Structures are given as structure tokens and as C-alpha cells.
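Ticket #4471: complex job returned nothing on first submit. Input attached below:
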Amino acid sequence: MKLFGIKIPMMASLIFWAILWEIAGQLDVSILLPPFSSIIMRMVEIIPTQTFFKAFLITAECFLLGTGIAIVLGIPIGVLMGRSIVADRMLLPWVNMFLSAPLTALVPVLMTLFGFGMKTIILTTVLFAIWIIVLDARAGVKNITPSLVDMAKSFQASHWQAFTKIYVWAALPEILAGIRLGCIRSVKGVIIGQLLVSVVGFGRLFELYSANFLMEHMWALLFFLFFFAFLIAEGLGVLERRFEYYAAARH
Amino acid sequence: MSNSSAAVSRAASSIAVEVEKVSKIYPGGVEALNDMTIQFPKGELTSLLGPSGCGKTTLLKIIAGLLPATSGRVTVNGVEVTGPGEERAFVFQDFALMPWATVLRNAAFGLELRGVAKSERHAIAEKYIEAVGLKGCEKLYPHELSGGMRQRVGLARALAVDAEVLLMDEPFSAVDEQTRRKFQEDLLDVIKHEGKTFIFVTHSIEEAVYVSHSIALLLPRPSRVSEIIRPDIDRDISPDAIRRDPVYLDIVERIWKGLRTYVE
Amino acid sequence: MRSLFTHSLTLRVLSFAIVFGIWEYLGRVPISPAFPTFLETMSALGSMIADGSMAAVYPATFQPLLIGLVISSILGIACGVFMGLNHKAEWFGAPVFIVLQSAPLAALIPLLTFAYGIGLTSKIITVCIMSVPVIVLNAYTAVRHTPVSMIEMGESYLGSRRQIIMKIIIPSASPVIYAGLRLGAAMGFIGAILAELLITPTGIGDLITYNQSIAEYEKMYAAIFSIMVFAVIFIEILERTEYLFFRPDKRVTQ
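Support reply: We reran it on our side without changes. The output follows.
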């Protein structure tokens, strides 16, 4: 959008929404919406506290471990599915199923098997993230320009050489896209896991704030989470765009 | 099959690549080649020219060992082809450059796969990058080059492995017209200096007549070699003179007359 | 023989057999007292279907799910298409939905319960907040990325803005919009189950938590199994209709 002939970046509209929020909050439109400024004040107040920091550490640990496991397992499975028809036909139905299944229904199972702790949250995170990583790695390997595979063959590349020097690199754009989407999903997974387990990390804080009707605290925590999720998604998006020239080289 | 081995040894001295009764039927029943027999002389550039569907790319890929023939056999210097080999190098229509690697690494990639030490293979690649006219571009990535320059990298890569036979699959079809002309002129230089056998697939009549020692005219349905033409053009005159040479123009016209009935 | 072995149906059956076999084996070990075998789960599923207890809970789950999905489809497509057509709307709206798509919106559920109580409204809104962002963004990007040459074609034949929107932009965007609906439905299922587990146990969520609390694990697993299968079939049907109506290019291979 342009204002007085100057192009204003799109993300600037978030400032407009913040102002609107502030007005709605000051006018007491809804008990749900405390003024924006007081939410920010509350953020400044609670973020440095020990409780918040501990909860953040637990969440970050669950997120990093869960995403890490999903990436380390997901990429090789995806590459395997891309190269082997048998593996693909055996695994694809499961990947597609878990991609659209209501994974929240599985969290109670994880709770009965692994208890009300970090293990359950980490596994929930893995469960949310892994399928899209597998599917994108598979798509990446399947999309390799055929002539690149022929090129490796015509120079008599071994299987190992073809894998390490061609397949992984050629599939990198899709693999990165899968990791970005996987991370977005695992942020959701880590929060859903904590909401359901509700005795550790931010899950406990949610419980605490909602039991005491602390609206500003609640929003402060939500803003913090949304901001972090956005940062992760955009950061990975930037990384992905650095490899965009790959796509231009494809036919 | 067995009686052909005598013919092979007789022809081996002057024939680099020999295709004997090769047929190719793709899974699903599409017949791309039917009982094709053709010989490619050493040190010359032979074009495979024909309308789409005549199986010229299929034949080239069978010679390269990238596709198995359904029946028949291909020999290179008397040795039967069972897969890709060091004595053959392929130049791809879409260049097949690795977008994540520099020009230097791309050009040296064939040697890299053969386990040649880094400094050695880079020295060889640099020499050929210069030979194809890309000196100074070693550190660039493929996406920073024009189509014509990318194919020069593809050619440098094929030359760097020092194969006797270079297989070129419509190498200039993804290159714009002006660049293509310059490239064709440079290719004539490379042919003169390298002394290698070139098998060149193209669908451009002018291109085939301009660059070839001999042209194998392939026709579809059923696929066959209809004629071998040796353009008797004096290669020592300037490129512009060749393009205006009556012999050149006559051959172009003659081939077009032979092909036009097959163009729908 | 080889073609029979690598046939997709053979491999699919084999793959299911292996997974269920492992499940059965782990259940018999048993790895945990709370882990029933596959066969126990299936017989519990059979008896729950037979005595009608399964059929009794599904309407309660589907009510918020379907209402939520209808609302988010209508609202989401309207928002997305409008943002794709109008630059001002894009400037104001797109950033919000980009943030919302990456945000863990499930965290809003405690707030919703606080504002709207533990009834149907909260659950419907849960379904909506989970499914709306992806529907909006798909509709928006689809409309925004209509091939320029198609629009220019419409303009060169003197099509009015209205004609270009109705006859070119919307039809060309509809496959992606529909794909967004499918993704939105999957998120909606996640939301519906989450709402039942988190807000108040009703429907299938009640079946899960109740059987968990009285340690009838095979019934709990059967309930989870049924909702997973149900969701997958639901999404599959959406996908099939997608191919049927919007993807003539893919119809042959399907």
C-alpha cells in the first residue's frame, strides 16, 4: 500500500491493528481484550521472572528435541521413499494418514504410556512435525531433474556418490521447505502437548492464569508465543529463499 | 548375433562406435527403435538428424549406456556397451549442471567422481573452461550464466574427462539463436583440435549441415536410417562463407525435401 | 511374480499387516499395562459399534466440527478472495493471517473457555480458529497468483472487471482454494478433538477420557482408532471430490 506516495511495507499494518486493539481495550469492548499497552507492560513484567524463564526453557527443550528427532528421522525416510518404490508404497499410506489425522486424539495414549511429563510433550511434537518433513524430502528426491541423475550415471557415479553429491543437494530446497513447515507444526504440537499435559512449562502457566482470570498475563504469554513462532517461521523462510536459485535452475 | 563379431574387428580400426540391429521397445509397448544399424567413424562428427519421434535421442542414450537396448548391440572400439563407460561422455540438452556447485566444480565433476585429486582435477577443468571460452567464470554459479554459457560448462565437463567419444543430445536447443551460431562456430574449432569422435543429435537441418562430417538422416514409423549424407564443404573458409556456400545451401534444401513429408 | 510383489495394493496390505502385527506383538509383551493388543482393540471397537455406544457419541463431536467448518469455509474464502483482489484489504489483512498461520492458536482455548463458557460456542470457535488461517491464506495466494497472461487475455477481449473475476480469477483459483478447505478440515478435526479433551469431555473425547479414567484401555484405543479412521476417510472423500471437480488434468491418473 502507498501513503503520500511512499510504499509502506505490509507488515506495518500490524501497528494499525495494535492501535485498534488499544482503542477497543480502553473502551472496555470485551473482557477478553485488555488494552494493548497494558499487555505489553505485563510482558515486560513477567518475562524476566524465574517462573517464566523456567517454563520457556522447558518449552524450548521440548521443541528443539522434538523437531530434532523429527528432522533426523524424517529426512532419511523421505529420501528412501523417493528412491525406492517398495518403501514408498509401504510407507506413503501411513504418512498421508498421519498428515491429516487428528493427532490430538493420540496425546491421551502418549500420556498413559509416558506419563504427564516432558516425554509426552516431546513425542507430541515429533508426531506433529515428522510427516510433512518426510513428505517434502520425498517430493524433493522425486523432483530431481532426470538429466542430473543421468549425468551422474554417465560419469559412473557409485550409489554413495550419487546420494551424497547429487540427491541430497538436489532435494535441498524441498527438504528446507519441509523443515520450515515441520517447525511451524511442531510449535503447535509443543503447545498442544503442554495444554493437555498442563503440569509443566507454559501449560502450567496457562492453567495458572486461566484459573485466576489473569487476562493480561494470558495475552502477554500468547503474544510471546506468537512472536516466537513467527520468528522461527520467517527465519527459516529467509534461509529457504537463499536457496531459491535452485528452483530457477529446474525445468 | 555371433556372426557379427568378425565384422566388428574388421571395422574397428576406423569405426569408433558401431550400432548393430538395435531395437528399443519402451515398457508399455512404444517402439522407439526398430532394427537400427549404423556406424560412426573415428575422429568425425556425425549428426543424427530427423523429425521428432524418429528415436534419435533414444539411440544416443543407448550408445551412452543410459538406456538398455531391447535387442541388438552397441560396440565402442570393438567392446560391447553394457552401461556408461569412461570412453564416452555425454552433453545434455538441459545442461544437467548442479545449481549448488561453481562452474569450476561442475566442469571438474566427472573427474571428481573418478577420484582425481582436487588440485589436479581443478587444473584440468580450468584448462577446458578456458578452451570453451569461459575463462574468468570459474567462481560463478550456473544461475549466474546465460544458457549458452551454461552449455559451454557442460561441454567443458565432457572434454575434461578426456573421453574418446562425445555424445551430444541437442546441445544447443535450449540456447538462443545468436548464441547458438557462435557456439556452432566454436564447436568446429573444438572438433578440429580435440580429434575426438562426436555423435550429435539435432533437429536443426542447418545446424547438422554446418557442423557435421556426415549426417545420418533418421525417419520415423518405423524408425530407420534413410540416408547418410556427407556434406562436402570446405571447412577452412570463414563461417560466413560456409553459410553462403551453394553446396551448404543445396544440402540443406535436399534434406528438407526428404523430411517435409514426415512433418505434420 | 515381481510385479505382483511390487503391486501397490499388495504392498499396502503388507504394510498394514506389519504395523498391526507389531502392535499385536507389543500388546502381548506387554510393553505397558495401558497398552492393549490390536485384536483386543478391534473387538472392543466391534462391541462398541454393536451396542450403539459409538454411534451415540459421534453427533456430539460432529455438531461443533461441521458448524465450525461451514463458518470457517464461508468466512475464510470470502476473506481470502477479497484480500487477493483488493490491495488495501491485502495490506491490512494478509500480515495478520501470516502471523496467525504460524502461531500456536490452540493456546487461545483457555481464553475462549473463559469468555464463552464450556458449551458449544467455545468448541465451534476452537474449530474455526484452527481451520481459518490456512483456508484464508490458500484462497488469498490462489487469487493473487492468477496467471497474469490469463487476466491480460480477459482484458484484451474487453472483459469487465466483474467478468474477469467471475470467469477467470475464481475458476483459476478454485483448485487451490479447495485444497485449502481440505487442509482446513484436517486442522478442524484437530481442533474439535482438542476442544473435547480440553474444555469439556463430550462426544468422542468423552469416550476417550472416560475409558482412560476407568482403565478400560482397549475401549479408549478403539475410540481413538475410530476417530482417526473417520477423519482420514472424511479428508479422503474431500480429496476425491477435489480431483473430480477441479482437476481434470489429474482425473485420468486417479
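Residues 1-12 of chain B have pLDDT under 50 and may be disordered. Closing as resolved unless it happens again.
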